[in-house]
Backbone:
């Protein structure tokens, strides 16, 4: 599992040590053929882009390590480290690879009698799963949804020289990109992508700490009321080769990596 999800689970474990925590995994291998051509392979077909990404990632990680030593960012963790019940459920992807539902194994989720689901992976949830947990499904988005939708987290804010970067945590609804926002924070955008993304996730984890504390003490999560003002409906995607090249050259020439 990712560095972010590992720390998110540790925070939940701190607050709900007397409660039962269950880790639910998508059976993604069962559906990998469905999404391979739609989502995975398009990043691997261009040899130059693959080479460029390696170079960019090298310098981005170097800058991150210099800014935050011992960050462990990018490290992968074994879920077996947690002594929790673990369930693998069948996940059905849409042809686009963006939407997923769990109708084949929905009974497994119902039998768990869940109070809350915290979404920790990709894919837009739909179907009956949205109605199962009593407190709903909470999901982070490492971007301010009023200005930056899609991904990758932290990149477009830096590339477009946005003054601030932000994140939200929302309660998912059946309406796409129209969840109920329960947490929103922002800070001044950093000079490089991975440093910006790292801080988005770091501050997001602090927000989860606050949310879990409220839930554990029986408090309701307040819905942020001013979130109907969307200034940009564009869904960002992974940068094209030329965009990534321009980003890297600008940072390299202006010594932002050094």
Residues:
């Amino acid at each position: 599992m990712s560095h972010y999800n590992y720390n998110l689970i540790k925070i939940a474990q701190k607050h709900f040590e007397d409660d039962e925590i269950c880790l639910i995994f998508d059976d993604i291998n069962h559906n990998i053929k469905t999404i391979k051509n739609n989502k995975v392979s398009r990043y691997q077909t261009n040899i130059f882009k693959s080479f460029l990404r390696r170079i960019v990632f090298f310098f981005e990680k170097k800058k991150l390590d210099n800014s935050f030593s011992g960050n462990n960012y990018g490290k992968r963790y074994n879920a077996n480290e947690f002594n929790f019940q673990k369930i693998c459920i069948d996940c059905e992807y849409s042809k686009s690879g963006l939407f997923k539902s769990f109708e084949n194994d929905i009974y497994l989720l119902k039998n768990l009698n869940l109070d809350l689901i915290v979404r920790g992976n990709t894919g837009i949830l739909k179907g009956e799963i949205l109605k199962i947990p009593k407190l709903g499904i909470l999901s982070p988005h490492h971007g301010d949804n009023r200005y930056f939708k899609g991904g990758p987290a932290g990149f477009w804010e830096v590339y477009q020289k946005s003054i601030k970067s932000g994140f939200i945590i929302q309660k998912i609804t059946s309406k796409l990109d129209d969840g109920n926002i329960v947490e929103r924070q922002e800070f001044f955008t950093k000079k490089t992508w991975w440093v910006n993304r790292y801080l988005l996730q770091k501050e997001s984890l602090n927000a989860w700490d606050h949310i879990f504390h409220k839930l554990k003490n029986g408090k309701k999560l307040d819905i942020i009321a001013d979130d109907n003002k969307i200034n940009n409906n564009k869904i960002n995607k992974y940068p094209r080769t030329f965009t990534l090249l321009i980003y890297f050259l600008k940072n390299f020439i202006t010594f932002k990596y050094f």
In short: Helices lie at 3-15, 32-40, 47-67, 106-111, 155-159, 193-216, 241-253. The chain has seven helices and eleven strands. The chain has a mean pLDDT of 87.
